[in-house]
Amino acid sequence: MSKTVITYGTFDMFHIGHLNLIKRLHQLGGKLIVAVSTDEFNAQKGKRTLIPYQQRYEIVEALKYVDLVIPEVSWEQKVEDIVRYEVDIFAIGDDWTGKFDFLQSHCEVQYLARTQGISSSELKLALGRLVEGHGKGVPSDLDILDGLRRSLP
Ligand code: CTP
Predict the structure, then answer these.
(1) What is the DSSP letter of 153?
(2) Are residues 27 and 69 in the same domain?
(3) Ligand 1 mean position to 51 CA, how many Å?
(4) For 111-153, what is each residue's pLDDT tens digit?
(5) Distance between alpha carbon 15 and the CA centroid of its chain, in Å?
(6) Domain co-membership, 55 together with 129
(7) pLDDT tens digits for range 65-115
(8) What's the whole-model pTM score?
(9) 83 and 45 in one domain?
(10) HSE-up of residue 149 (Cα within 13 Å, Cβ side)
(11) Is the CB of 120 within 6 Å of ligand 1?
């Protein structure tokens, strides 16, 4: 029988680590729900994104692996979402290992290995270095981009 899977995240500057995770989540079940953190919720977490919520939402919604996108507005909504959408599996990257074990009384909980060498934070840092180095020649824009490419699987 087809399973419903849910995950939560910010998905700023959508990158290959996000795509790999979403593909694997899709393979886990039949229906994938992605809760995208709103700008207001990120502000509560002290996190600021480059890409605003509406655009992050639309990018995730356009993926063929994703069946439904909902806003993530609080830490507390997970149990309510799991009950409302009859979720079978809660899954998230393994940077969160152990943090959501308390959901096991409601559904299966899985932590999936992250893609190495890339994150929104690292992209922001690389972008900063790119802008800083622009026109100064050290390090060149191409060196930075090559470094980023080499770090990808
Ligand atoms: N993720 C992943 N592999 C990566 C980066 C993220 O599997 N290289 C997963 C996270 O574990 C999470 C989801 O993607 O389940 C959304 O993560 P998010 O925090 O939005 O992305 P990050 O790139 O980790 O952002 P940041 O650097 O701001 O933490």
Answers:
(1) -
(2) yes
(3) 15
(4) 999 999 999 999 999 888 887 776 565 555 556 566 666 665 5
(5) 9
(6) no
(7) 999 999 999 999 999 999 999 999 999 999 999 999 999 999 999 999 999
(8) 0.89
(9) yes
(10) 6
(11) yes
